[in-house]
Amino acid sequence: MSSRMRRLAGVTIAALATTLATALPAHAINRVDCGDRSDFLYFEVDGANPCFANAGTIDVAIYGIGWMSTGNNEVSIKYRTVLGGPLWDSGRLAKWTAFDLGLASGAPSKKVHKIEQITIY
Protein backbone atom coordinates (compact mmCIF):
# COMPACT_ATOMS: atom_id res chain seq x y z
CA MET A 1 0.00 0.00 0.00
CA SER A 2 1.43 3.38 -0.96
CA SER A 3 1.96 6.13 1.61
CA ARG A 4 -0.69 8.23 -0.14
CA MET A 5 -3.28 5.43 0.25
CA ARG A 6 -2.32 4.97 3.93
CA ARG A 7 -2.78 8.72 4.56
CA LEU A 8 -6.13 8.68 2.76
CA ALA A 9 -7.25 5.64 4.76
CA GLY A 10 -6.14 7.33 8.00
CA VAL A 11 -8.01 10.54 7.17
CA THR A 12 -11.14 8.56 6.21
CA ILE A 13 -11.08 6.56 9.46
CA ALA A 14 -10.52 9.71 11.53
CA ALA A 15 -13.43 11.47 9.78
CA LEU A 16 -15.71 8.47 10.33
CA ALA A 17 -14.77 8.27 14.02
CA THR A 18 -15.44 11.99 14.46
CA THR A 19 -18.80 11.71 12.72
CA LEU A 20 -19.87 8.77 14.89
CA ALA A 21 -18.70 10.47 18.08
CA THR A 22 -20.70 13.61 17.35
CA ALA A 23 -23.76 12.00 15.71
CA LEU A 24 -24.69 9.49 18.41
CA PRO A 25 -26.71 10.86 21.34
CA ALA A 26 -25.24 10.52 24.82
CA HIS A 27 -27.46 8.55 27.17
CA ALA A 28 -26.04 9.35 30.55
CA ILE A 29 -28.93 8.04 32.66
CA ASN A 30 -27.63 5.78 35.39
CA ARG A 31 -28.62 4.16 38.66
CA VAL A 32 -27.32 6.02 41.68
CA ASP A 33 -27.26 5.65 45.47
CA CYS A 34 -30.24 7.60 46.81
CA GLY A 35 -28.56 8.57 50.06
CA ASP A 36 -30.46 11.44 51.70
CA ARG A 37 -31.26 13.12 48.40
CA SER A 38 -34.79 13.68 47.15
CA ASP A 39 -33.96 15.11 43.71
CA PHE A 40 -33.36 11.74 42.03
CA LEU A 41 -36.02 9.61 40.32
CA TYR A 42 -36.93 7.18 43.12
CA PHE A 43 -38.81 3.88 43.24
CA GLU A 44 -39.93 2.24 46.47
CA VAL A 45 -39.71 -1.51 45.89
CA ASP A 46 -39.45 -4.69 47.93
CA GLY A 47 -35.85 -5.04 49.07
CA ALA A 48 -34.00 -2.12 47.46
CA ASN A 49 -35.05 1.36 46.45
CA PRO A 50 -33.44 2.22 43.12
CA CYS A 51 -32.75 5.83 42.17
CA PHE A 52 -31.81 7.19 38.76
CA ALA A 53 -30.15 10.41 37.65
CA ASN A 54 -29.19 12.25 34.46
CA ALA A 55 -31.07 12.60 31.19
CA GLY A 56 -31.56 9.70 28.81
CA THR A 57 -33.42 6.43 28.38
CA ILE A 58 -32.65 3.09 29.99
CA ASP A 59 -34.27 -0.35 29.78
CA VAL A 60 -34.96 -1.82 33.23
CA ALA A 61 -36.88 -4.60 34.94
CA ILE A 62 -38.29 -3.20 38.18
CA TYR A 63 -40.90 -5.29 40.02
CA GLY A 64 -42.78 -4.88 43.31
CA ILE A 65 -43.17 -1.12 43.07
CA GLY A 66 -45.07 0.77 45.74
CA TRP A 67 -44.32 4.44 45.31
CA MET A 68 -42.39 6.50 42.82
CA SER A 69 -41.13 10.06 43.05
CA THR A 70 -39.89 12.01 40.05
CA GLY A 71 -37.64 14.25 42.16
CA ASN A 72 -36.19 17.16 40.18
CA ASN A 73 -36.84 15.36 36.88
CA GLU A 74 -39.43 15.24 34.15
CA VAL A 75 -39.88 11.53 33.54
CA SER A 76 -41.78 8.97 31.52
CA ILE A 77 -41.99 5.25 32.21
CA LYS A 78 -43.10 2.30 30.12
CA TYR A 79 -44.75 -0.39 32.19
CA ARG A 80 -47.02 -3.44 32.22
CA THR A 81 -49.92 -3.77 34.64
CA VAL A 82 -50.01 -7.57 34.38
CA LEU A 83 -47.66 -10.27 33.19
CA GLY A 84 -47.98 -10.51 29.40
CA GLY A 85 -50.23 -7.46 29.23
CA PRO A 86 -49.80 -4.48 26.92
CA LEU A 87 -46.92 -2.06 27.37
CA TRP A 88 -48.23 1.31 28.60
CA ASP A 89 -46.52 4.70 28.45
CA SER A 90 -47.08 7.08 31.34
CA GLY A 91 -46.57 10.19 29.25
CA ARG A 92 -44.39 12.97 30.58
CA LEU A 93 -44.61 13.27 34.37
CA ALA A 94 -43.84 16.58 36.09
CA LYS A 95 -40.97 17.33 38.48
CA TRP A 96 -41.49 16.84 42.23
CA THR A 97 -44.44 14.49 41.85
CA ALA A 98 -45.02 11.31 43.86
CA PHE A 99 -47.28 8.46 42.74
CA ASP A 100 -48.80 5.39 44.35
CA LEU A 101 -48.30 2.79 41.63
CA GLY A 102 -50.96 0.48 43.07
CA LEU A 103 -49.29 -1.80 45.59
CA ALA A 104 -49.99 0.50 48.52
CA SER A 105 -53.66 0.95 47.62
CA GLY A 106 -54.11 -2.67 46.59
CA ALA A 107 -56.09 -1.64 43.51
CA PRO A 108 -55.33 -4.42 41.00
CA SER A 109 -56.47 -2.37 38.01
CA LYS A 110 -53.90 0.31 38.83
CA LYS A 111 -51.07 -1.94 39.96
CA VAL A 112 -47.82 -1.77 38.03
CA HIS A 113 -46.47 -5.27 37.48
CA LYS A 114 -43.16 -4.24 35.90
CA ILE A 115 -41.44 -1.06 34.76
CA GLU A 116 -39.52 -1.79 31.55
CA GLN A 117 -38.17 1.57 30.45
CA ILE A 118 -37.36 4.92 32.06
CA THR A 119 -36.73 8.23 30.31
CA ILE A 120 -35.46 11.29 32.16
CA TYR A 121 -35.73 14.52 30.16
Could you characterize the architecture of this molecule?
There is one protein chain. This protein is an alpha+beta fold. The protein has one domain: Gamma-B Crystallin, domain 1 (Sandwich). About 15% of the residues lie in helices and about 35% in strands. It has one helix and nine strands, in the order αβββββββββ. It has one helix at about 5-25, and strands at about 30, 40-45, 50-55, 55-65, 65-70, 75-80, 85-90, 100, 115-120. The strands form two sheets. A five-stranded antiparallel beta sheet has the order 1-3-2-5-8, with no helix packed on it. A four-stranded antiparallel beta sheet has the order 4-9-6-7, with no helix packed on it. The longest helix is centred in the first third of the chain and has 21 residues, at about 5-25. It starts with a helix and ends with a strand. The mean pLDDT is about 80.
Query: Secondary-structure element order, as H and E?
Result: HEEEEEEEEE
The geometry reads as: globular
Number of strands: 9
Number of helices: 1
Q: Any idea of the CATH topology?
A: Gamma-B Crystallin, domain 1
Based on secondary structure, the structural category is alpha+beta
Strand order of the largest sheet: 1-3-2-5-8
